[in-house]
Design a protein that fits this description.
Blueprint (H helix, E strand, L loop, with lengths): L2 H4 L1 H15 L2 H9 L3 H9 L3 H10 L2 H10 L2 H9 L3 H8 L4 H8 L4 H9 L3 H11 L6 H4 L6 E2 L5 H11 L8 E5 L5 E6 H6 L6 H4 L7 E2 L4 H11 L3 E5 L5 E6 H18 L13 H27 L2 H6 L1 H30 L8 H31 L2 H31 L4 H28 L2
Parallel strand pairs: 1-2, 4-5
Antiparallel strand pairs: 2-3, 5-6
Helix pairs in contact: 2-3, 4-6, 6-8, 8-10, 9-11, 16-17, 18-23, 20-22, 20-23, 21-22, 22-23
């Protein structure tokens, strides 16, 4: 990506902000409505509340529904709260079934009833099929717009059928082959349809190796399948093999982005759907529990230090050096923790191979510990002129880096076993362990051998 492409969203935001500030609303309106709905959504998320409301009023009504599908949950809720019922009903018209299912769940009950009543029976049935699955599953991601063909049809018949349809759904790289009971049997690629002899049957050229994805498959597993198999679309089936719909790569990209945002934001105790410009009180309330948790862990570490108050008073060098021990342990543990959480997210770590990973990380921790222990021992000796102090900090570093590797590898697995999110709590637990063990090892050894 070129530098100009990287800065394009920022420049677009600056131009819109300038138009709003100078009151040139017509220029802002023209600029906005020339953008893709996803780009409009990005701009809305980047604006403070009052400018967001003004900008939303400028957006053409025929794209409002599409924009609502792209903004994060918190921004979407705030926009929907200010929309009249007839505006909400108009916004849902023409949306794909999977996008409509996402929005429908946050609409007022009266609007939901009106939207459902305005649908024909076939579209309502498709919507109900998507809504019957949790949002974070293959069934919740799927769309029901798949084109199906029978295996006994010739390619010529299929081509004539597509011409009668006049258009095919976006991201259609394959037609889905089903039997008379609507059970999935294979895929007919558009490439084969166009290049093979028209007299051949679908059965002759269809791909039977690609399995359907069960509707209750978690969305992160779906994303892994798309990545591993380089898929553009995939059929979704029930436990009996009956076709339910299909998932397309654009929905999977959203899952991958959301997973990345979730992991990154969770490290700070935040939610990826949080509105960056949410009201101050709401943002303060949301962050308070995380800060309270960190305060508790900091108090624990301070309590450990307080137990060695007399030792620190007698040897000021301990107060100077002890942050190094805790910091080295925290960084080393974070490296292992990040590696393990990523492996868990990609489905690469299970209890079957966790022991092998643990022994490897312990070995890395021990080797790094010895390396940096030697370096710190030399620095401490030349700094304070006391070889005993150098040996003590060296021993503490080795102990803390080994413990950090142990904690970084096991804490995420333990947290997941209790049904919690390793990304959310792992960092706090790890920091507490490395601080407490680092301080205890360093100050304890110093108390025993120096005082």
């Amino acid at each position: 990506m070129s530098e100009s492409e990287q800065h394009r969203p920022t420049r677009r935001l600056e131009r819109l902000a300038d138009a709003l500030e100078t009151g040139t609303m017509m220029r802002a309106r023209v600029m906005l409505n020339a953008l893709h709905p996803a780009e409009i959504a990005h701009l809305l998320e980047s604006l403070p509340q009052e400018k967001r409301e003004l900008t939303w009023e400028m957006i053409n009504t025929d794209v409002e529904g599409d924009v609502l599908t792209y903004v994060n949950d918190e921004v979407r809720d705030s926009l929907i709260r200010d929309m009249a019922n007839d505006e909400l009903i108009a916004a849902t018209e023409g949306l794909d079934v999977d996008d409509l299912a996402d929005i429908l769940q946050v609409l007022p009950d009266t609007v939901i009833q009106t939207v459902l009543q305005s649908m024909d029976e076939q579209r309502r049935g498709r919507l109900e099929a998507v809504l019957s699955f949790p949002e974070d599953t293959a069934g919740g991601l799927m769309n029901t717009d798949a084109i199906t063909v029978r295996p006994d049809n010739t390619l010529d018949v299929v081509l004539r059928y597509l011409r009668r349809l006049g258009e095919i759904p976006e991201m259609t790289d394959n037609l889905i082959v089903v039997n008379r009971d609507n059970q999935y049997t294979g895929l007919l690629s558009i490439t084969d349809l166009l290049t093979k002899e028209p007299s051949l049957t679908v059965f002759d050229v269809m791909n039977t190796e690609e399995e359907g994805i069960l509707g209750d498959t978690p969305d992160n597993e779906v994303a892994s399948l798309f990545e591993q198999r380089d898929l553009i679309s995939a059929p979704v089936v029930d436990e009996n093999g009956v076709l339910l719909g299909r998932i397309t790569i654009d929905d999977v990209v959203d899952v991958i982005r959301d997973e990345a945002d979730h992991s990154f934001m969770s490290m700070a105790g935040l939610n990826e759907e949080t509105d960056m410009f949410a009201p101050v009180i709401a943002s303060t309330r949301r962050r308070t529990p995380w800060l309270a948790t960190n305060l508790i862990t900091a108090l624990i570490a301070s309590w450990v230090i307080a137990q060695f108050e007399a030792s620190i008073e007698k040897l000021v060098a301990l107060a100077i050096l002890m942050p190094i021990v805790a910091s080295m342990g925290g960084i080393a543990g974070s490296q292992t923790l990040t590696l393990v959480i990523r492996g868990m997210a990609l489905g690469q770590i299970s209890y079957a191979n966790s022991w092998r990973l643990l022994t490897k990380e312990l070995a890395v921790g021990a080797l790094n510990g010895m390396l940096w222990a030697l370096i710190l021992a030399v620095i401490t000796y030349f700094w304070f002129g006391d070889y005993r102090l150098g040996m003590i900090i060296a021993a503490a570093i080795v102990i803390n880096l080994i413990v950090a590797a142990l904690a970084g590898a096991t804490v995420p697995l333990i947290i997941r076993k209790f049904g919690a999110d390793p990304a959310l709590g792992g960092g706090v637990v790890l920091t507490t362990i490395t601080d407490v063990i680092g301080f205890m090892a360093f100050l304890g050894l110093a108390t025993i051998f120096l005082l």
